[in-house]
## 1
Amino acid sequence: MKAKLATSALIVATLLAAVPAYAHHSFAAEFDGSKPTRLVGKITRVEWTNPHSYFYVDVSDSKGKVSNWGCEGAGPGALSRRGWKKGDLKIGDSIVVDGYRAKDGSHLIDARRVTLPDGRSVYGGSPGDGGPGDNGTVQGNLPGTGKS
């Protein structure tokens, strides 16, 4: 009986451990490193969630047409260790986001460098995702984010 219980517990633990691994993806799986993009706009929504945080920015083109872009960043823990707090982005704030477009052409970018309203630039990439600036550490090494 104890062996069955131990086996069942091991199976459940293995399945639960696989869920976060499945949810996380490499940079190259979704984004195109040859398509750098800069967005300048106003925050419309912030999702401080795991395994990735998301925030959304209204961006106006040269003709005044507004498009809403999703910006994917690292999880809240990694961002907090870089000095970035949930309250740093507020609805209506103007920000600059440097990142790379989604391969599917949607209005989604991987937010590698985010210039916050107070002027700080923060590395937004996920540690170990293999994208630009990733050196396997939570701080990354993207130029202009205060870390080298």
Note: The chain is about 20% helix and 35% strand.
## 2
Amino acid sequence: MPKAEVIKRPVEQVGNDIKKSAWFSVAESLAIIVLGVLFIVWPDFMAKIVSYLVGAFFIIKGAFQIINYFLEKGQNDFYNNELLVGVISVLIGITVLAMGGNIANLFRIVLGIWLVYESLVKINTAIKLSAVNMSIWKYVLLLALGIMALGVFVIVNDVTVVIGWMMIIAGLIGIVGDVLFIQKVDTLISKITKE
């Protein structure tokens, strides 16, 4: 087997992995759109549902850590803090459940931070695309800046319905950016294997 072929196969595998990752990102964007629609249609109900889900998550996670601490004999391990982390998780979960719909403000901030994080990931992708002279980097960068602006807007705005619309817009922008990227992965792999 020629040396170039040996090198090309792992690079092509990387290309397939990149595509899978991008399609997963598309699925995340679709989930955000669905959540956005639900926030628009039932804002108060969704705020309560989110608080119940978050509260239940922390309680279950904490209970698992507490049980695991005793099953794994964590009390004999000086550096095992699962009991402490578990108790704190359960307390956070109970607090979130008690707060009910008021937890929407926390959710809004977390969502905004997540959108800013997603935009930074896309900015990083745009920089890498620019480094290999892929013209699509400009579009990916513009979309990333749009997502960042939405993230900042969600962080500073406390209207649940507006948050729903921002989630829909952010999801659509994410899908467009990821699909554009997926279409250029093969070109990117070709450039890498020729160099």
Note: The radius of gyration is 22 Å.
## 3
Amino acid sequence: MDSDKKPRLIHLVIAIESVVLLAFLLMLTPVGGRLTLSERVESAENVEAEDGAPESGEAEKQEKAGGGNAEEAESAGKEEKDSFDQLKGKEDSGQPEADAGADGQQDSEQKDYIKWVDFDIPAEALKKAFRCDIDTYLADIHLNWIEILAYLGARYGGDFSRYKESDMDAVAERLLAGEKMADIASAMEYYPYYLEAYTAVLGGMVGMYQVEIPGSEAPEFALPKDEKGNPVPTEGNVWVTKYGLKAFSPIAKNYPYTDYDDFGDTRDYGFHRVHLGHDLMGQVGTPVIAVESGRVEAIGWNRYGGWRLGIRSLDGRRYYYYAHLRKNYPYHKSLQEGGIVQAGDVIGYLGRTGYSSTENTNNIEDPHLHFGIQLIFDESQKDSDHEIWIDCYELIKFLSINRAETVKDESTKEYYRVYQMKDPAIPGGAAEQRMPEYAAAP
């Protein structure tokens, strides 16, 4: 029995030694090394978690949620920035994404332009900024009204329900003290957006121009001179050069009208839609005035607007829309498609045409002028599903400080402006809209 047990014991010892040796060799192999490293990493992570370190992903969350004032501001402003980037066209607009070139840059055809503008600057803010501009025109420091409004727009996030005169006074004082707007607004990420947007609305409205005024109101330097150079009073009109508001109300002087802020109201003719303009209720035949100098881009019948006009500003940014003009004689006879009109010219007559596929039909119950302003930052916006129409109720209130005076030619029943204007924005000048000399006295 003992002789049989010895070989078995020897075999058992050899087997155990073989297993130990195999395990030792396994630990020395690359596979064994990887297994051991993995175990060590897992062990270290467990220790860190036990020591109170944040779990996976929590460190990033804590950094974004409470990593100091800068991080808080970045997080709080992310939603506003995303919304702003959509306005600016930096987000995907539904078009296929542009291919990147070899250098990683997007295709040059990918355009970046403003996609929407909310214009809610109250008339009192427009008037005050305008006064700041013209009152300092000849001063050492000339304040720019659009820059001031853009600063406030950036400060308020475009919400002028927060407007306070003291805010405008404060920034005006800083500018008059010698600070530059570029420095004052340097920390405002969206100041460039508001400057571009508000320039698109107001850019052609203030500047230099020449205009006729009654001789009785003319300063001595503008009066004709005698042989000795002394001013001679005159009952006629005289030309003066001015810096100021060269845009006009769309309703002629001395003609009554009523209005309210109806932008966004619903309309049902043809299809359910919102009202993208401003209605000025008045008398049939009231002279309608060109708000700004520009080129006639559309003239004729539209089943919604009736007899209507579309006039494009000379810088291309604004499209002025005048609709529901008078039946039978909607336009001034001088108008033609492609022609130039000057701010303050009579362009047509208030009526109640429209809401019909049949031309020259009165289907509007209350006579009024539908007036609209479309902003165009890229030509693709002109006639598309992405048109930008602004609420111009407050702007009309502002423009009411400058209404063109008109006179009627009794022989033709046509109206003309009384005081001529020369707008330097018109290349080569524009023809005067003066009543023919043979016309009867007004």
Note: The first helix runs from residue 2 to 28.
